[in-house]
Amino acid sequence: MAVKAGEGGEQGKRNTMNRLLAAARVEFARKGLAGARVEEIAREAGVTKQLVYHYYGSKEGLFVAVLDESSSNIMSELVNLKVEELAPPQAMRTVLNHFFDQYRFDPFLGSLALEGIRYHDAHQTPRNHFLEMAPALINKLDGILLRGAASGDFRADINPRLLLASASLVTTGWFTNRYSMSALAGLDTDSAEGMATWRQYSADFVLASISLGAKKNADNT
């Protein structure tokens, strides 16, 4: 039976919104913002269509909420990774592998990310959890870089913000640009071999670019 607005108190409302976000996430990932139907989302969540509009105002409002929750979960996982006791190269590889694995183990994240990119390119969106949490992740990478520079593993001139941007593109591009990646790498992006190969290669590539050895080699050319 579809639930009504306000049923079950504040905890009931929170549970209902969680079901709505979960159902909407799948619908938007499969059909995109234009193709998704509020009726299907409401039915899957066990609520009325009117309740969806009551909570989120519009289909677009629900989509933005889904993007915000997804980015919040992604950033929280990365910021809370326990890497401080690892040697700098291992710590950085752990973060890079987690970039990849978040998409690897979530069948909807790549499609949702692509739809989010298209939406943000065409709309002015309010400040969200991704932007709010980015400084914490940048600081985490900067801490690894500083330790790596002190230990002689990494160059001392690495911009952590630029590193985060380039590393995220290199690792997650396997899932957000499947056609080009498959054609250029000669690997099936959905295959176990393709994923294992790119997971290893992308981390190796980023680590090589920030290693002290890369700087020395460049100075000698």
From TrEMBL:
PROSITE patterns noted in UniProt: HTH_TETR_2
Any Pfam family hit: TetR_C_29
Segments of the chain annotated as binding DNA: 37-56
An MF annotation (GO) of this entry: DNA binding
Domain HTH tetR-type: 14-74
The entry's keywords: DNA-binding
Protein name: TetR/AcrR family transcriptional regulator
Organism of origin: Pseudomonas vancouverensis
Lineage of source species: Bacteria, Pseudomonadati, Pseudomonadota, Gammaproteobacteria, Pseudomonadales
